[in-house]
Design goal:
alpha+beta, 264 residues, membrane, five-stranded mixed beta sheet, transmembrane helix, 2 domains, 7 helices
């Protein structure tokens, strides 16, 4: 592939060349570390956006189906003046973990036989998260709120949209930071191996140059790990080792390419 002649190289051009063109590393290594970090940030942001968008899409569909199923099973109800009133025979069980009884004939002890569950009474809700943690939410704190089954059904799509947007935003922030920081640490570890190789094979390449090479060398590993392996329905043993091996192969070939250039 042709050599890079301009210092104004787009992110996507860097992304492509870091995977398919080892000679381009000769250009990357001469740039400042800041440009390498910027590339890693944009790569992390792109991957985090894709993964969080897929996660949001899956949640959106499952939440809609789950909420629709619960609403179909739920009888007519109304919340008014801090009290929940439900029509029909009670106690009412929904999806085996939600119990509703607004008659006053059921108390929180009904959850003792459950590892987790939700009990909705006339004046409060009891949420059991595990065998030891149980929390109560008193409806009197929201006695100025009024809604019924029709209101809830109407707002489910809106709630779903907001949660989906939150998943994308949170996933982008957390995912970007996680991928970026972990890759910087991985590049440091791989760079130490690189400096040893440089000394043994008398390549005479500084650690700072090797570290910049390692940042780009992890590109394919990140893409395969986050965007391919992460969505495959099978488990691939020892992939963490393969993750480093692939990056190590890129690093070695890039170091060798740079060594041959500086010796010319």
């Amino acid at each position: 592939m042709d050599e890079i002649k301009s210092h104004k190289v787009s992110f996507f051009e860097r992304f492509k060349r870091s995977i398919v063109d080892i000679r381009s590393y000769n250009f990357f290594v001469k740039e400042s570390l800041g440009k390498g970090i910027l590339y890693l940030f944009l790569l992390s942001l792109m991957v985090a956006f894709i993964t969080s968008s897929v996660m949001s899409y899956k949640f959106k569909n499952s939440f809609e189906d789950e909420a629709r199923g619960i609403m179909i099973q739920m009888p007519d109800f109304e919340f008014k003046n801090g009290e929940m009133n439900v029509e029909g025979d009670m106690p009412l069980r929904i999806d085996d973990y939600i119990i509703v009884d607004t008659t006053g004939n059921t108390d929180a002890s009904v959850l003792d036989s459950y590892n987790e569950g939700i009990l909705i009474l006339k004046d409060k809700a009891v949420v059991k998260k595990n065998v030891v943690e149980k929390r109560e939410f008193d409806f009197s704190s929201i006695n100025d709120v009024e809604f019924n089954k029709q209101d809830v059904a109407k707002y489910i799509p809106k709630i779903n949209n907001w949660i989906s947007i939150f998943i994308v935003l949170f996933g982008m922030i957390f995912g970007t930071l996680w991928i970026m920081l972990s890759t910087m640490i991985n590049a440091l570890i791989l760079g130490i191996a690189g400096i040893i190789i440089s000394k043994v094979q008398k390549m005479d390449i500084e650690f700072g140059y090797i570290y910049k090479i390692c940042i780009y060398a992890f590109t394919l590993s990140i893409v395969v790990d986050k965007l391919i392996i992460g969505y495959m329905p099978i488990y691939i043993p020892y992939f963490n080792i393969v993750y480093y091996i692939v990056a190590g192969i890129y690093m070695y070939n890039a170091m060798d390419s740079y060594r041959r250039e500086i010796q010319q």
